[in-house]
Amino acid sequence: VGAAALPTECYCAWVGAANILQDEPAGVMERCQGYLQTLAFVQSMVIGAAIFSSVINVGSGHLISLLAHFMQPPNWTALETKITEMTFLVQLLTLGVVVTLVNADFGFGLGAEKGILGLVGAGDYPDIDRAWTAAVGVEILTLFLFSISTEAVAA
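The structure corresponding to this sequence follows.
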């Protein structure tokens, strides 16, 4: 059985977006038009989410700095401690909670979509178990480690 006998989505993923756009093999562009549209939509959502969270994190960083200076801590160490504590709290809320909600399976759907708008509660994990820890927990931990390291480099 050749690759052409695969279901359309599997075949299109196997061929790859670059080959689809070049119509190699011939006729693949027509067969994979829906796949390309879905891929473009998903990629634009990922880019939009990354831009949105970057704007939120940069904006909250400035707000945190202003709040920490407004509190007039007695020394530089106290100021840095306040900034670090507030930054951790904001990143916990923006990154940890969002990642958890997106990967959670609420067990219901609104309309035809699973979860809420197909995003929140439409994940694969109805409970926290080993599979959740391996996928979602590691992702959250990695986000926090990168956040901590970027704060240390920025200081």
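The helical segments are 8-15, 17-21, 28-31, 33-70, 76-103, 130-154.
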